[in-house]
Amino acid sequence: MGIEEDFYGTIKFKNGEEVYAKVAASEEEDRTMLIVSNPIVIEEVKSRGSLAAYKFEPWLKTSREDMFIINMDDVLTLSESSDIDMIANYQDYISRVNRGNRSKLNRKMGRIGSVDDSKKLLEKLYKSK
Questions:
Q1: What is the CA angle 11-14-15, rounded to 5?
Q2: How confident is the model over 60-106, as pLDDT tens digits?
Q3: What is the dihedral of CA 88, 94, 96, 102, to 10 degrees?
Q4: Half-sphere exposure of 110 (CA within 13 A, CB side)
Q5: How far is CA 23 from CA 14, 48, 51, 53, 113, in A?
Q6: What is the model's pTM?
Q7: Which helix (H) or strand (E) holds 87?
């Protein structure tokens, strides 16, 4: 079993779906699998005149997973991307999404306090026994 070096690329599935992601190929026994990180769907949005922009969205909107294994039997074609602008925009989008997924602490999750406060509380409990 070996994993090839990862690259940015577009995967077109046999069902018509198309995703852009960081991709690595893995050989397992008699089949090839793709390890896909942070797959997104890209939609071209045209504005007035000849200007066009891209809209990025997660591939699976109800999953928080960032890595998927895809069987090559489901893939119609795979294309490596060398477009520096697209790669930079993808990385920026993934970075912003990952920052937004961090939960903010609140009292329902448990006690919120500093390390010093916790240390003082534990020392007080220890000394009281």
A1: 105
A2: 988 888 999 999 999 999 999 999 999 999 999 999 888 876 556 66
A3: -160
A4: 3
A5: 17, 34, 30, 24, 41
A6: 0.71
A7: helix 84-100
> CA-CA distance, 43 to 2, in Å (whole number)?
33
Q: Which domain holds residue 104?
A: 2-128
CATH number at residue 52: 2.30.30.100
Instruction: Tell me how many domains the chain contains.
Output: 1
In 18-121, DSSP assigns E strands to: 18-28, 31-46, 52-58, 67-71, 75-80
The DSSP letter of residue 92 is H
